[in-house]
Amino acid sequence: MAQSIITFPSVYHAFRAKKILTDHGIGVELIPIPRELSASCEGLAACMDETYTLQAVEILETKQVVMLQKGIKCRID
């Protein structure tokens, strides 16, 4: 199953996004931002099945959740 992530500028936005998306029936796991996307390795990203990415971005935009990178494909080992 292909996964994608959405990154956030702060932990606050990541936790808020997880709650909102979970309330909308989208399964989300918060993970550290992958090293390839952030040299400092700080922050959290929402990881989800890529089929939900567009829907998740639209929901989060509606709720005014700040996102940095939207729908980056990734492989979670």
Report on the structure:
The structure is a single chain. The protein has 77 residues and is α+β, with helices and mostly antiparallel strands. It has one domain (3-74): Alpha-Beta Plaits. It is 30% helix and 26% strand. It has two helices and four strands; from the N terminus they run E-H-E-E-H-E. The protein has helices at residues 11-23, 53-62; strands at residues 3-7, 29-32, 44-49, 70-74. The chain has a four-stranded antiparallel sheet with strand order 2-3-1-4. The mean pLDDT is 87.
Key descriptive features of the protein:
single chain; 77 residues; alpha+beta; 4-stranded antiparallel beta sheet; 2 helices
Please outline the helices and strands.
Blueprint: E1 3-7, H1 11-23, E2 29-32, E3 44-49, H2 53-62, E4 70-74
Antiparallel strand pairs: 1-3, 1-4, 2-3
Structure, briefly:
This protein has 77 residues and is an alpha+beta fold. The protein has 2 helices and 4 strands. It has one domain: Alpha-Beta Plaits.
